[in-house]
Description:
single chain; alpha+beta; 6-stranded antiparallel beta sheet; 6 strands; elongated
Amino acid sequence: MIKHQYSQRVYFSDTDCQGIVYHAKYLDFAEHARSEMIRESVNQNEMLKNHAAFVLKEINVVYNMPAILDDILFVHTTIESLKTFSVVLKQEIKRNNELICVVKVKIACINLENNTVLKISDYLTQ
């Protein structure tokens, strides 16, 4: 099973006026981590040349506690399920051992020319 870890410092631009991470920023942190995980095994430029791309189908976020300015967060990404046409990733965002939030995403792969679904296993393997 693929497991990936990505670190992210909380900058002032990630926070609200109280120094707490704005809720939508967790989606950015998760996207950065997913991109780095995918980059390690998939050449996305080659995919684009072949008119293929990953797209987000579903996303769910559960917030447990806030992160604050200057925290160093770790995004732990694991493949929860890999099916013919989709993959579900679980992303835990932590500060040390404290669980800040959990993001679950379902990703598919499509042909950009005709918007048909492609076998995700042709591009992403476990």
